[in-house]
Amino acid sequence: MMEDKYLVEVKNLQQHFPVAGGKLLEKKVVKAVDDVSFGIRKGETLGLVGESGCGKTTTGRTLLRLHEPTGGKIFFDGADITKVNMLPYRRKMQIVFQDPYASLDPRMTVGDIVGEAIDIHRLAANKKERQERIISVLSTVGLNSEHSNRYPHEFSGGQRQRVGIARALAVNPQFIVCDEPVSALDVSIQAQVVNMFEKLQEELGLTYLFIAHDLSIVKHISNRIGVMYLGKLVELADSLELIFHSVHPYTKSLISAIPIADPGISRKSKRIVLEGDVPSPVNPPSGCHFRTRCPYADELCAAQEPEWKEVSSRHYAACHHLDKVN
Ligand SMILES: Nc1ncnc2c1ncn2[C@@H]1O[C@H](COP(=O)(O)OP(=O)(O)OP(=O)(O)O)[C@@H](O)[C@H]1O
Ligand SMILES: [Mg+2]
């Protein structure tokens, strides 16, 4: 069997944050990311979905080592980068943030926001080269040289996110964590910005981890999709396989939630509507984290954590009752 060659890979990634409020000397933690494994091939997009607080952002930030991982390993282009000095990798691995209003310094011009990254990594030999590079990267995202002297507040949400993308692109990265890059934008311009991510990927050969709340946004852009619930991946498969042949009850419930008018979504499978909210990650349910909201849960689910296993080729899931559910 040929081994998968990944540009980015995490194995058993963990991110546990200490939380205040426990009893004296009792160390409470939020298991924001708990034993998550996946790989992303060069030029591909892995979509990562799940409800608020399930650990998507923490997964993205930890794999960039913006948080030091509590456990597990991170690989970039075959190299173990879990413990190395990240400076040479910062250039190759970038992030675009969810909120283009909060993530751009209001006191800096757009030119300086983009130029800063060029300076940090010494990618321009002189002022002229720096300016040319700024203009060129702005034009890549559909902005022009005039925009470079303006401040973020002078731009619309969509344009600001273009600036955020330009900042990431300025250092010629190979990989970008796109952390809900369109969810703060007007619905009317979300598609535009998603299309731009796709076009950039094609032109520049980029690899993405594309984070979103719901499947409708990632299903077009992603080659593969991972579904998270309370710090854990519950299912991971090629996009079409995940949409049409999901096996995990949580994924099925997310698919049930996609508006029916959305073409290309199968309604053959049983509709699963979840009740209640995601429990606190400080105190997750024993066994399977999903069991408190799962219509199929029984004693086994409370007693034992389900194993993460390959259910068919390149399709992974963690559930005790796949036979009952499917
Ligand atoms: N720096 C931190 N310190 C402590 N707890 C944190 C920290 N960052 C995140 N958490 C907690 O970790 C859990 C996962 O948060 P995270 O932001 O990764 O979720 P998310 O899936 O990105 O949610 P959203 O969809 O709302 O962006 C949450 O319970 C959150 O409160
Ligand atoms: Mg988030």
Task: Count the beta strands.
Answer: 12
Global outline: globular
* Biggest sheet, spatial arrangement of strands: 6-7-8-3-9-10-12-11
Helix content: 25-40%
Protein model, in words:
The protein is of the alpha/beta class and 326 residues long. Helices cover 30% and strands 22% of the residues. The protein has an 8-stranded mixed sheet, sandwiched between helices. Strands 2-1-4-5 form a 4-stranded antiparallel sheet. Strand 9 and strand 10 form a beta hairpin. The longest helix is centred in the middle third of the chain and has 18 residues. The protein is globular and about 70 Å long. The model has no long low-confidence stretch (mean pLDDT 92). Adenosine-5'-triphosphate (ATP) binds next to strand 2 and helix 1.
Summarize the structure.
It contains eleven helices and twelve strands. It is α/β, with parallel strands linked by helices and 326 residues long.
Set down the secondary structure blueprint.
Layout: E1 8-19, E2 28-40, E3 45-49, H1 56-63, E4 71-76, E5 79-80, H2 87-90, E6 93-96, H3 110-120, H4 127-140, H5 157-169, E7 175-179, H6 187-204, E8 207-212, H7 215-221, E9 224-229, E10 232-238, H8 239-244, H9 249-256, H10 299-303, E11 309-312, E12 315-317, H11 322-325
Parallel strand pairs: 3-8, 3-9, 6-7, 7-8
Antiparallel strand pairs: 1-2, 1-4, 4-5, 9-10, 10-12, 11-12
Helix pairs in contact: 3-4, 3-5, 4-5
The structure holds adenosine-5'-triphosphate and magnesium ion.
Adenosine-5'-triphosphate binds next to strand 2 and helix 1.
